[in-house]
Amino acid sequence: MSFELFDRCRNLRVAAADARRGFRTWRDERPFWAGLFTFAAGLPIIYFPYAHLNFGAIPLALSTSAGAGSLIIGVLLLALGISLWVHQQVRVFAGITVILLALVSFPVANLGGLFIGMMSGLIGGSLACAWVPPTVVAESQPAANRASTTIPAGEDHGGK
């Protein structure tokens, strides 16, 4: 009975390690952090115009006429964050759009979600614009031969 328990725990650890390795591979192939910051930027921009916060006996309501604008900007930021994860080819377009939406959220959406959403959007958009896809190294040559077979730019080795 106890051997089955240890075997189940071992299988669970192997499955967890495989899942973590798979997630790490997935994360490295796309602008993950840019999408996370962008997604996180949309949440406070959507939340604060509709929230009624209480600080002790002091109620704080940020309900303004900008509720519809905040909702549109927040939903667009959420959608752009997800699209950065799913379609990494649109990273530059999404990054520039996120930066523009974050800047527009300052006057429209209660100081950009109390500066939290705006700053997170600016960071996410900058990361999206700066992200470069990983290069694929040819696996046909061993690592020692790769360095010796590269020809520096500008040199002509035309068979002479």
Please explain how this structure is put together.
There is one protein chain. Helix content is 68%, strand content 5%. By secondary structure, the chain is mainly alpha-helical. A hairpin with a 2-residue loop joins strand 1 (52-55) and strand 2. Helix 2 (32-47) packs antiparallel against helix 3 (67-86) and helix 4 runs antiparallel to helix 6 (116-130). The longest helix has 27 residues, at 2-28.
Q: What is the CA–CA distance across the termini?
A: 75 Å
Question: With helices defined by DSSP (H or I, 4 residues minimum), what is the helix count?
Answer: 7
Please estimate the helix content: 55-70%
Give the topology string: H per helix, E per strand: HHEEHHHHH
Radius of gyration: 24 Å
> Taking strands numbered 1, 2, ... along the chain, how are they ordered across the largest sheet?
1-2
Q: Notable features of this structure?
A:
160 residues, mainly alpha, 68% helix, 5% strand
